[in-house]
């Protein structure tokens, strides 16, 4: 496996529909291995692999992974060749332009890649440019396409930048190539630390660059031109610290903190993840990948099927209410923007965002506090979930504690909406559950909904 | 042709690489017809269809059009079936949630579609939601996928909203479906009016909605919930005028103004465009499509190969300089944000943006005015182009008029970067040409580049 000779795109299509020319290959080779491995992982999480929501999850995960790592089966040569166009330079004057020396930049390409340290997708905003040489330019979309070939592999930001740079240099043979990547990696708290660290930052961000030819020297003037062209698009390089080669690995899974609640990691699950990596065409013994199966399993175990009491323990106390809206003789109390982290049971991919909770109470009565609300949200978040069920479960659990009139809104970004061939980067999902008076009284609903401010999802690019 | 039974995605890949399972079909049936038609159009524009940049344009256009209208060959049933999941509702309480009655919304889906009035792509920001019923929810990504099936056809905003709404209603069988589309259509001036209307708005925008079931009544309370969920994502529906059925067709090509310079439209070209529409599986005699070939050709003729004198006529006068930056004993004069419109010769798709021009002059000397700069930009814009060449040609033309020290920056959004399977919605391209002192003096370059403010491309979503 590994490299096929053709450059076909395998677009994710779920539910048994074929995924393009190499669909057969997927079904017979890589796909089967991944599906079996995913069944082992689900079993290790204490899940019933035959329940309705999970039954096709192994198939869906296999297809998503094959699609997300299609770069292993693509060749830059096929993309760039035939998209090189002769373009006259400036022959009779002193200067650079056209096919000779005039900088060409494509900015703000949204991509995603897979972190080789933990197997989670990470987002990439890519800026790529080159200085033409030999009166030859490349079709602009090819800068995006070539970047995507290397993004769709197990990656690390600096290597991704270097590989794109080097591939474009070889393909276009320009005076130089420059790449700047703004990478954003999801940073889940584990189920233990989430209760201790209320200011947990949901993202890790790094900025990396790579340059060839005239860009090889990081202090070359041509880099100033490049930065200027980014700057007046609102990207201020002066304010950003570029990552140094000596900096620690960026992946949060490398920080080493593991919840003591998780216990020893199952060797069977680790072997299953290693078999997935191998079936993608990678070498699980490559230095950077050796610890990956173990890190992935440790992370996954945050979402194991577990019981309620363990987590609510110690949090059953009252507290102050953040927001109040007068509503007839009662007040709408609300707790807005409670962060949550969860794992989509259809694709084994993270989704995360905020929960807004409202409830109707007689004047002054306030039975529970923010910590309890938070722990209920976290309890239902840290498992294999779908957003609709998460919303309902939070509402149903709160209802007896809060007098029955409850509204819950969950807003989330789903990793499965940016990976898997969907690639809807800016999209977000909202779900509502309404109980008691909120289900019958549109004015009560509207009063609560209007009290929600307009933030962007925290840390979102 | 028309509807195939499978739902395969045909992803655009250029330069002779196959495009998926129906690649053969493309080559033998639809593709050949479109390629022949595109050759006729290029010929009608006075172009040499064998010159290097255009040689593969017919093939590229055929593939892009087939990819951009793949919705004709997809079935919603294949996408939704098997992605319906049982999800318990709230059985023992008064309320709505989970699989029963709790609103589910996906916001900010970026798509593009093709305008049936003029065949140009238009951008769509889609918000779609439904109220589950029967304890059944649909995979979130399917809302995006089904929308895309109808977007990838020749469309009109209201029909697109209605078709998506109706297809999701049939597929999910929910209590109701709601769609809101923010559509943005490029609005080119023609080569005549661009000189007269310096405030030309580059976009036409409309907002449409459609609702089924509980959303059928536009004043239903559930619409308020829907709007609230959009509002706190920064989308303020109160400020937006929804399009009424009685409103005029939104497509700017329907306004009827045609440059007198273009002359009678070639029947051969019109027949060629009609054959393209037919080969996509559409009926060129459908009422809304009857005038489309003629409108497309009229628009295309703005980009015919033409001579210089005609356009510069009347504009060779001096004028004031907008910006000045002191630079040693000379001054860098600059004219920033001159809009331009052009047509990508590789894909016959529009690109547009702004040009920044800087030149070095002795104190007080100012040979030409903004009108001349604008007409030179427009002259090189209104033809089949590539951005690199456009930048160089503007610089070369200005050099003898401005004393030889010239810098030109072109910033553009390329329609070919959002359609054709690339779909990089936020991306933009920048090119530089430098002549004389600007090519040798990095401080001069930096002084000019730093003087460019940070606008977003005008009118951009």
UniProtKB/TrEMBL annotation, chains A, B:
Protein name in UniProt: GTP cyclohydrolase 1
Q: PANTHER family, alphabetically?
A: GTP CYCLOHYDROLASE 1, GTP CYCLOHYDROLASE I
Name the pathway it acts in.
Answer: Cofactor biosynthesis; 7,8-dihydroneopterin triphosphate biosynthesis; 7,8-dihydroneopterin triphosphate from GTP: step 1/1
Q: Please describe what this protein does.
A: GTP cyclohydrolase 1 is the first enzyme in the biosynthetic pathway leading to folic acid.
Q: What is its EC number?
A: 3.5.4.16
Would the keyword Nucleotide-binding be found if you checked this record's keyword annotation? Answer: yes
What is the superkingdom listed in this entry's lineage? Eukaryota
Q: Name one GO biological process term.
A: folic acid biosynthetic process
Q: Which UniProt keywords apply?
A: GTP-binding, Hydrolase, Metal-binding, Nucleotide-binding, Tetrahydrobiopterin biosynthesis, Zinc
Q: Which reaction(s) does the protein catalyse, per the Swiss-Prot or TrEMBL entry?
A: GTP + H2O = 7,8-dihydroneopterin 3'-triphosphate + formate + H(+)
Q: Where in the numbering of this chain does the GTP cyclohydrolase I domain appear?
A: 34-186, 271-452
- What GO annotations for molecular function exist for this entry? GTP binding; GTP cyclohydrolase I activity; metal ion binding
Assembly and partners are described as: Homodimer.
Kindly give the Gene3D superfamilies that the UniProt entry links to this protein: 1.10.286.10, 3.30.1130.10
Entry annotated with the keyword Hydrolase: yes
